[in-house]
Amino acid sequence: MSGRVTSRRSRVVGRTSASEDRGPKAIPEHGRCVGNARDVGLLGRDLHQDEVRTVACALPGAPRVINLEPETLPEILDSIRQVATAAGVEQTAEAVIAGLTARVEAVVTRTTGIESRPRVAFLEWLDPPFSCGHWNPELVGWAGGIEGLGSPGRRSRTLDWKEVVAWQPEVVFIACCGFSVERTLDELPLLRSVSGWEDLPAVRSGRVSATDGSHYFSRPGPRLVDSLEILAHALHPEVHPLPAGLPRALSVNSLHFV
Asked: Do residue 108 and residue 192 come from a single domain?
């Protein structure tokens, strides 16, 4: 989950590997923050468990460490439950999970009636190209697309542009890991050199979109439900309305490739 996680009882403080800021009492580990001297520390992906546990055990009260490494959206929702249980706020978590689940089910229900589902190339990096991974392939399916380059619950993988072109995507959705939309746009000119790019169905029909991969899609937290709604609107705007307050994916045209 992105950012700081704190219970109302101030018993749980933690940060995942995606966190950007650092608290005054945090334990720095590989340039990231894991937790402080409270009852429970949260351990995110890419952090070495043994080293973190060693540091945690040296703190007053020897806080318990919870390792959170969800690979799918259901596992992320279960992580919320784990944190809440550790913090003693299970009922609050169940209400949050129920609300998030209802939003996901609303998207899935609307998608059920969609007959034409486009081939989607969801790219998490451009140089070199990376497929989507972890939770993002399942988001594509729930949103009404067909993702042929990434696998649900598996890590993203390095692609050859020939593989992307061979897939002949009808939609290209770019959410570069850790990049804002503005930073992502800086990378787009390199696509001009990709053999076959201009002939892709998505490019010919103007269905290339870019979004904020830093705030959405990249981090395993509740905001992935926002990400699903943004993606669903990008794929099928006539079926999936964009909820108020969420940014629409930016439609990328030829001007961005100059």
From this structure: yes
pLDDT digits (tens, 9 = 90+) for 21-49: 333 233 333 333 333 334 555 545 555 66
Residue 126 and residue 215 in one domain: yes
Instruction: Grade residue 86 by pLDDT with cuts at 50, 70 and 90.
Output: confident
Question: What is the distance between the alpha carbons of residues 22 and 28, in angstroms, rounded to a whole number?
Answer: 8
pLDDT in tens, 171-186: 999 999 999 999 999 9
Specify the CATH number for the domain of residue 106: 3.40.50.1980
Q: What's the farthest any 2 CA atoms get from each other in the chain? A: 62
The answer to whether residue 253 is domain-embedded is yes
Under DSSP, is residue 166 helix (H, G, I), strand (E, B) or coil?
A: helix
Residue 85 domain-assigned (yes or no): no
Domain count, the chain: 2
Task: Give tens-digit pLDDT for 148-169.
Answer: 999 888 899 999 999 999 999 9
The structure tokens 């649900």 sit at: 152
Ramachandran sector of residue 104 (left: φ over 0; alpha: ψ -120 to 50; beta: rest): alpha
Positions of E strands within 96-137? 119-126, 129-131
Tell me the CA distances in angstroms from 33 to 30, 50, 161, one per residue in order: 8, 15, 36
**170 close to 205: Cβ distance less than 8 angstroms:** yes
